[in-house]
Give the backbone structure.
Amino acid sequence: MRTPVIAGNWKMYKTGGESAAFVKEFLPMVAGVKGVEIVLAPPFPWLGLVASLTAGKKIGVASQNVHFAPEGAYTGEVSPAMVKDVGARYAIIGHSERRQYFAETDDSVNRKVKAVLAAGLVPILCLGETLAEREAGKTFEVAGRQLRAGLEGIAAPDGTKVVVAYEPVWAIGTGKTATPGQAQEVHAFLRKTLAELWGSGAADAVRILYGGSVKPENIAALMANADIDGALVGGASLKPATFAAIVKFK
């Protein structure tokens, strides 16, 4: 049985004070939640703060990015070991905004996934098609390519530690959401692709999240599908009550 993951990606929002206030308000709201992994991904400066405030509360902290090198002359970058040192347990890799605005490629994403695994962190590997690609009938082609490339050279024992996040680019921050049927169709395809890589046993162990305008009103319908194992939530994760409602989808 795959344990669902509900992760909140705060992107470039919240000061330290706002982050602390969120956690203080959020914790009581989810205190009784069981059977769900809750993850918060604050901006880099607040990783340690959020990790300390959630310590012992069964809430994981994720970095929104990492560099693929363990250390080096990479001004402005942060290594997997550094985010682990301040309390992160997960790292979001290959988000469409990183690919769009910061020239991330399938190759750099693959190097980051390997680096995150080597550091003992859980990578959340993001992939998804643009609106133009969907309208051109290339959804499976793009999703399959990004998945295979992101996992290139990774064997099943490590691969089952990876969390995959399908985020159709056309649904991120737009208010548009893939229908539960559309999302399930791609998730099933991704699991089939994982089975081709590692076998059905390993594929069945991988959690595949949906991301793209997830909100309290649609989370239950999404989660009702066999291959949807959680959500990577953007804007709706910025308000404690809204994110708590998503976490408590059951």
About this structure: Strands lie at 5-9, 37-41, 59-63, 90-93, 122-127, 163-166, 208-210, 230-233. The two ends are 16 Å apart (CA to CA). The chain has one domain: 5-14+68-247. The domain at 5-14+68-247 is CATH 3.20.20.70 (TIM Barrel).
